[in-house]
């Protein structure tokens, strides 16, 4: 791998390792993901030409896809606290969490399209999260989307004024989840995810 690709892979692998530790630690009741330096995450360095050799592509894609498998199977809630930019892989990472909190100035976008390739994993997530015509527009245009627009579409749980309030609201939001019986949270979360994939009559039977 080139140095820039190795660095990206190491960062993703580090996040995966942290999520596995959180999943295995009974003392962790909720996972809060946030960025540093005023931004959430911009994903891979899209300004640098991608290494399209098979080993590089497979290593990166496998590690990145594993993040979302870990988030789905975490067994406890995950919360993204977004300030600044959450674009490309960062948009995917935010949408892969159970809950999203954001500042009014935050910006999201599937910017892979601006660099000539589809936002494959974001496509899978957005197709399950929102109105199909709106989600398809965001995926195909690659435009920057204001946090207010995502809030209106139901993809953000809380919209706050600035980073300081985001920190406070993030802690409060997680504290509310932690205050509930952990088994009830785990089972309720799993039941919700299963029910979304079922016809209503099957979901009602599953919920008994």
What does the model show?
54% of the residues lie in helices and 12% in strands. It is of the alpha/beta class and 208 residues long. The strands form 2 sheets. A 4-stranded parallel beta sheet has the order 1-2-4-7, sandwiched between helices. It has a 3-stranded mixed beta sheet with strand order 3-5-6. α2 links the parallel β1 (31-34) and β2 (78-82). α4 (120-129) packs antiparallel against α5 (132-141).
Question: Which terms would index this structure?
Answer:
9 helices; 208 residues; alpha/beta; 12% strand; 4-stranded parallel beta sheet
Number of strands: 7
Oligomer: single chain
Radius of gyration: 17 Å
Mind summarizing the main beta sheet? 4 strands, parallel
How much helix, percentage-wise, in residues?
Answer: 40-55%
Query: Can you write the helix and strand succession as a string?
Result: HEHEEHEEHHEHEHHH
Strands side by side in the biggest sheet: 1-2-4-7
Q: How many helical elements?
A: 9
Mean pLDDT: 86
The helix-and-strand class reads alpha/beta
Shape by Cα distribution = globular
**Stretches where pLDDT falls below 50 for ≥5 residues?**
none
End-to-end separation in angstroms reads 51 Å
Layout of helices and strands:
Elements: H1 3-24, E1 31-34, H2 54-72, E2 78-82, E3 85-87, H3 89-96, E4 99-103, E5 107-109, H4 120-129, H5 132-141, E6 145-146, H6 147-152, E7 158-160, H7 163-178, H8 182-196, H9 200-206
Helix pairs in contact: 1-2, 3-4, 4-5, 8-9
